[in-house]
């Protein structure tokens, strides 16, 4: 097996960056001129800072958005209105995702960077499509279909990277294959945990399938950041969780949006990751497996169930069956 196809160890590289690094710092000196990128959710929070960094390096960035006019207003306000293309897409609507992919490929020969950044978190119980649980359907199945529908463009790059945003939320639940849609006993945090585990497992299996075509895949934990992702959470719940005090002051360790975007940008562009993939990253490096004896086990490292190769393959097959799309079939 060539070095480029060899298995990447789930172990830090010593990247030189860390918890406090910003997106602008990790992309400094990297030239993305002539490169095409897509960032889902690229008009708020981490996504906006991710787009800002990619544009600063010369990339041509497209932002698919459910609310296109809102996205255009935000990007224009950030000084990016003339440099970023906004297209309509709703991740919870499979037909919308496929239509966006078809439009994109009609105007682009290849795609070099795809950052699956958009997500919903701890939302009230909701069903989309044929009765799918909304967090799993939006965070995972929407992006699964997007990647498979864009596969001709990704494989045409010859050196593409796909970055999927997971989180330490993956520690809250493995994939519940016996009841993936929470037909009984919906729990918003377990549903979020399952979706974030799915994002990580998707990166593992996509990398296995895509590496021989020059497409490498990474899962990323961006860190704790206060963004619109928390819109479903009342302040009282965040205080009880220890995220902030009663006055709304964030606990030590939370990142700014630009710091939170750094690991996504690093995974998408770092030369240190050439020939690597299929791993979970945090703080601008490949993460260690979780040390279950550590007092920080809930917040650091990746749990075994989120990088399990057999589970990753099983999830891929189920996702292909549910969505009816599989670029590798």
Enumerate the strands of the largest sheet in spatial order, edge to edge or round the barrel: 3-2-1-4-7-8-9-10
Strand content: 5-15%
Say how many strands there are. Answer: 10
Largest sheet: 8 strands, mixed
Task: List low-confidence stretches.
Answer: none
Describe it for me?
There is one protein chain. The chain is α/β, with parallel strands linked by helices and 329 residues long. 36% of the residues lie in helices and 13% in strands. It contains eleven helices and ten strands. The strands form two sheets. It has an eight-stranded mixed β-sheet with strand order 3-2-1-4-7-8-9-10, with helices on both faces. Strands 5-6 form a two-stranded antiparallel ribbon. Strand 7 (160-165), helix 7 (188-210) and strand 8 form a beta-alpha-beta unit. The longest helix is centred in the middle third of the chain and has 23 residues, at 188-210.
Write the layout of secondary structure elements.
Layout: H1 23-27, E1 36-39, H2 45-56, E2 60-65, H3 68-77, E3 84-88, H4 94-107, E4 113-116, E5 127-128, E6 132-133, H5 134-149, H6 151-157, E7 160-165, H7 188-210, E8 215-221, H8 235-240, H9 257-260, H10 262-269, E9 279-282, E10 285-286, H11 309-323
Parallel strand pairs: 1-2, 1-4, 2-3, 4-7, 7-8, 8-9
Antiparallel strand pairs: 5-6, 9-10
Helix pairs in contact: 4-5, 5-7, 7-11
Descriptive tags:
single chain, 329 residues, alpha/beta, eight-stranded mixed β-sheet, two-stranded antiparallel ribbon, globular
